[in-house]
Amino acid sequence: MKLADNKATLSFSNGGPSVELPVYQGSIGPDVIDIRKLYAQTGMFTYDPGFLSTASCQSAITYIDGDKGELLYRGYPIEQLAVNCDFLETCHLLLYGELPNADQKKTFSDTVTRHTMVNEQMQFFLRGFRRDAHPMAVLTGLVGGLSAFYHDSTDINNPEHREIAAIRLIAKMPTLVSMAYKYGIGQPYMYPRNELSYAGNFLRMMFGVPPEDYVVNPVLERALDRIFILHADHEQNASTSTVRLCGSSGTNPFAAIAAGVACLWGPAHGGANEACLNMLEDIQRNGGVSKVGEFMEKVKDKSSGVKLMGFGHRVYKNYDPRAKLMQETCNEVLNELGLENDPLFKLAKELEKIALEDDYFVQRKLYPNVDFYSGIVQRAIGIPVNLFTGIFALARTVGWIAQLNEMIGDPEYKIGRPRQLFDGATKRDVKPLAQR
Ligand code: CMC
User: Fold this and answer.
1) Does the CB atom of residue 271 touch ligand 1 within 6 A?
2) What is the number of other CB atoms lying within 10 angstroms of the CB of residue 196?
3) From CA 227, how far away is CA 221, in angstroms rounded?
4) Whole-angstrom distance, CA of residue 416 vs CA of residue 79
5) Ligand 1 centroid to 62 CA: how many Å?
6) 3-state helix, strand, coil in the chain (%, to 5)
């Protein structure tokens, strides 16, 4: 960490001695005030629920400038990666810091491809679930369950174990997600095919059936690959912070990633694409475009509890750059499938148009996020709504594992242990039951 020229001085209005705090500079982005010794110096904690002003770690993986609407993986703008690279190149970049050259790309793709099968016993584990279980419930279990099957990669302190666990997780997630899907609809699992691309193999495992050959549609393959790239990492979001916190106890990588899957499930995070599509279908059922105005009034009425899903972001206070790319992909996929007049797409565009002009949204800097269009794309591809967050988890796995490995490799890493402002009962005595 690079010390800044200036220091921060914290003074107290009650005349207590002021303290000087070091300031560090990143390569870009806001400086940070180092408060690690604050408690020792003052007996006080800082208070920041929701981490609105707290950098929880140092990281060299992903940078977001929310005001500019900029997202960089290892310095590369997401717009360039989405157009010039595929998902596995992006995985290489996130994991190892650099885009692969042609040889490295081949080696990395071969390695991932050769780990796509899962232990045959996993299907019996999967059978314990109800057929109508939510895929995220199934995935949380299956990903955590990997630690029971791959004992040779569970030592988080061993760099070789971390490396093989990373490859296994990236390689096996598409297999697990498609198994969860096939199980739910009662079809046989499709084994992976090594000659297909990462996205092509996933499409086949999802939509192929044993009695026929499956021909991968290159437009859908590219669309899915782009969804994966756009969701691959996003700095210290809730699920990534969960993975880091969970992994900081020294637990195995599969358990830490399972914690990330569980966190991602929530509607304020990865569950937003599912919630967004449900919202669009709801409006469509209740009158479609003609009811948009009425719906927007509800959104603006705080007492209604209704939010415009797929809008707003903790960090982006300008357009989410992923949303632009996803809108492009949405056009491509709908054209390819002859769904240009898809009513949900029209509805989404109408909602977006109104929201971008409405004072409520403009003042609060609420713009469409990646999930606003990703649900429409996935639905057009044939992915059921309740699997959307599973697709997000599949894509984010590389980000989680890259962040986890970065943390473990950081000499300053400690178990995460936040403190609290206690405002409960002070010390009191237990009365015997008869006197309570
Ligand atoms: N619809 C209506 N009002 C909203 C929305 C929305 N989608 N998002 C924020 N607001 C309002 C909010 O009520 C608040 O108003 P006020 O200042 O009058 O109290 C103001 O905007 C600021 O919102 P906030 O809740 O303080 O912002 P936050 O940074 O805590 O929340 C968010 C960010 C993403 C949780 C929130 O915008 C939201 O719930 N959006 C809908 C869910 C969604 O699309 N999530 C996907 C995020 S992108 C995928 C990912 O990276 O996980």
Assistant:
1) no
2) 18
3) 10
4) 34
5) 22
6) 55, 5, 40
Atom of ligand 1 nearest to the CA of 276: 44
Q: Are 364 and 197 in contact (CB under 8 A)?
A: no
Rounded CA-CA distance 157/159 in Å is 6
Structure tokens of 206?
A: 């999802």
Token pair of 16, please?
A: 């207590």
> Atom 48 of ligand 1 has which residue's CA nearest to it?
369
pLDDT tens for each residue of 47-83: 999 999 999 999 999 999 999 999 999 999 999 999 9
CA count, 13 A, side-chain hemisphere, 228: 27
Q: State the pLDDT confidence band at 399, using cuts at 50, 70 and 90.
A: very high
Angle at 166 between CA 324 and CA 205, to 5 degrees: 65
Give which of 195, 206, 203 is closest to 219, Cα–Cα: 203
Which residue CA neighbors atom 2 of ligand 1 most closely? 307
Place of tokens 């989404």: 348
Catalytic residues: 313, 371
Distances in Å between the alpha carbon of 16 and those of 40, 125, 421? 15, 60, 20
Our answer on whether the CB atom of 310 is closer than 6 Å to any ligand 1 atom is yes
Which structure tokens are listed for 398?
Answer: 């590389």
Q: Rounded to the nearest 5°, which phi and psi values hold at 130? A: -60, 150
Residue 369 CA: nearest ligand 1 atom is 48
Q: How far is the CA of 314 from the centre of ligand 1 (A)?
A: 7
Residue identifier of the C-alpha nearest atom 41 of ligand 1: 309
Which atom of ligand 1 is the closest one to the Cα of 302? Answer: 13
Q: What is the pTM (predicted TM-score) of this model? A: 0.92
